[in-house]
TrEMBL record:
GO terms for molecular function: tRNA guanylyltransferase activity. Residues 138-243 form the Thg1 C-terminal domain. Residues 6-135 form the tRNAHis guanylyltransferase catalytic domain. This is tRNA(His) guanylyltransferase. The gene is THG1L. Adds a GMP to the 5'-end of tRNA(His) after transcription and RNase P cleavage. Belongs to the tRNA(His) guanylyltransferase family. Keywords: GTP-binding, Magnesium, Metal-binding, Nucleotide-binding, Nucleotidyltransferase, Transferase, tRNA processing.
Length: 257
């Protein structure tokens, strides 16, 4: 590359290398998504099309960025966990964050028509992102537990709120009815007044989506006409409890990645 007298401006760039041997979590959030979902007539309290579109965009991110070991999504946010051993982009914070946010956003728009075929995209969606470092496995698990607990708390409230509104009252009246209630009261209200057993709602709504890498068996016919089986890497979408220990005991390789 040719040099010029203007190259000195490179010295104004800030060093932003992430601390080594730490888990890096990139969390992206929809910007102004309350307005966005209203403009595109998303179903309330959960739109399976919109959530599936988020999952698809996240899958594409993980297919391109192999240093991501696990993804977790709920509502309009997604968290991507990058291995503590990763040297992705020399661990440059701005490069990692901007790349993941742009890949996610691009795929969200690209696959929009596949998941929302009857809803024209009125204007471009926008996502912001940040990176937080977690030094220990316990810290990382607590972070993911926090996000799943947030999913449950928000979804239980929203399920109650929109069920009450759809019964024919105003949003103000629904807010007043729920004010000061705890989880047990919300569950009881849903069951006794509206016949809804919260535990029977789709796990994707209650627990969010967990994306992990796995291998699946794929059968094909070789050139000799024989059926052969090979393993193919894929990104699985599951809706498991990640607060308890069972998930982690069954997948010890995740934290050792």
């Amino acid at each position: 590359m040719a040099k010029s007298k203007y190259e000195y401006v490179k010295f104004f760039e800030k060093e932003d290398t992430l601390l080594k041997n730490t888990w890096a979590v990139v969390r992206i959030d929809g910007r102004g998504f309350h307005k966005f979902t209203a403009a595109h007539c998303f179903e309330k309290p959960n739109d399976p099309r919109g959530l599936s579109l988020m999952n698809r965009a996240a899958q594409e991110v993980m297919l391109q960025i192999h240093d991501i070991i696990i993804g977790y999504g709920e509502s309009d946010e997604f968290s991507f966990v990058i291995s503590k051993k990763s040297t992705l982009y020399n661990r440059r914070e701005s490069k990692i964050c901007s790349t993941i946010v742009s890949i996610f956003t691009a795929n969200y728009v690209f696959y929009w028509n596949e998941y929302m075929p009857d809803v024209p995209l009125q204007y471009p969606p926008c996502f912001d992102g940040r990176i937080v470092l977690y030094p220990s496995d316990e810290n990382l698990r607590d972070y993911l537990s926090w996000r799943q607990a947030d999913c449950h708390i928000n979804n239980l409230y929203n399920t109650c709120f929109w069920t009450i509104v759809q019964s024919g009252v105003t949003e103000t009246e629904a807010e007043a009815k729920l004010r000061g209630t705890v989880s047990a009261q919300k569950n009881e209200m849903l069951f006794t007044e509206y016949g809804i057993n919260y535990s029977n709602l789709p796990a994707m709504y209650r627990r969010g989506s967990v994306l992990i890498r796995d291998k699946i068996e794929v059968k094909s016919i070789n050139t000799s006409g024989k059926e052969v089986t090979r393993q193919k890497s894929t990104i699985l979408i599951i809706h498991d409890d990640i607060i308890g220990s069972k998930f982690w005991k069954e997948r010890k390789h995740l934290l050792s990645s």
